[in-house]
Amino acid sequence: MDGGIEAQLVEDTASGETTLPDYLVNTYRWAYLTPASLLLLDNPVVLTAILWGNLPRLVRTACEEFEPGQRVLQAACAYGNLSPELAARLGPRGKLEVIDVAPLQVAHVQRKLSDFPHARARIADATAPGGGIFDAVCCFFLLHEIPDPEKSAVVEALLAAVEPGGKVVFVDYHRARRWNPLRAPMSLVFRWLEPFAYGLVDKQIPDFASPEARSQFIWSKQTYFGGLYQKVIAVRIGDAAIVGEAAPA
Ligand SMILES: C[S@@+](CC[C@H](N)C(=O)[O-])C[C@H]1O[C@@H](n2cnc3c(N)ncnc32)[C@H](O)[C@@H]1O
To answer: Which of ligand 1's atoms lies nearest the C-alpha of 75?
Structure first.
């Protein structure tokens, strides 16, 4: 780790709450909280296997939702090349802010972003991301790893981080189509390794928002790979278009 990254981490750790959620410690320590996790999982061969070869396509479909020059929040670190691809997409006039609860993951993504001075990472929980208002938010494979009450808190907090016209993009697991041969094996994977993923199989992402927040967005969904993955986009409606609000006379 170079001095610059260390200084950034110390500063953010001192100013932020860094308590690790129980679900992360109890269910995902092996995947995110030890140096061996990085060696084991941040590896193209392993990531290709985990996502059945779909990582490049899912990264591409996430990144194409953002425009050069935007200020974007990435709601948690991800293995692979999402963050550098996103930083490249936003360009030097844009700004990428990556947050994560795990200091190890923040240090790791800082290294990946060292060629992008307009990108930074800091320690924060996606239920209280901080950093003010963003043009857009990217939430990539976070929801399936957190319990349903935290899913609601994260969805609500990320929706609150954009103004009218702002966009929140979720890419994650979804209920595979009945004919998809991966439906049964993935159900076993969820049972053994990813117990909170069932929330995304049983419910739609907008259902994790409160009715009030949900009504302030236009929602759309696209699925991939026989329904196993989804991209859900929420665009905040302009003030005058919010249901129930009178237009000026
Ligand atoms: C985005 S998720 C899954 C990413 C996916 N498996 C991959 O690597 O492509 C993994 C990250 O979420 C982080 N995380 C879990 N709960 C979080 C929360 N409430 N706020 C911010 N980060 C969180 C973990 O520390 C971990 O770095």
So the answer is: 21
Ligand 1 centroid to residue 180 C-alpha, Å: 27
Reported as a single tens digit per residue, the pLDDT across 184-240 is 999 999 999 999 999 999 999 999 999 999 999 999 999 999 999 999 999 999 864
Whether the CB-CB separation of 155 and 172 falls below 8 Å is answered with: no
Torsion angle of C-alpha atoms 5, 119, 196, 189, degrees rounded to 10: -90
Ligand 1 pocket residues where CB is under 6 Å: 21, 24, 32, 76-80, 99-102, 105, 125-127, 140-142, 145-146
From the CA of 51, give the closest atom in ligand 1.
9
The enclosing domain of 25 has a CATH number of 3.40.50.150
The pLDDT tens digits for 112-156 are 999 999 999 999 999 999 999 999 999 999 999 999 999 999 999
Q: How far is Cα 174 from Cα 177, in angstroms, rounded to an integer?
A: 9
The domain in which residue 160 lies consists of 3-239
**CA 184 to chain centroid:** 26
- Residue 249 domain-assigned (yes or no): no
Is 247 domain-assigned? no
Residue 245 belongs to a domain:
no
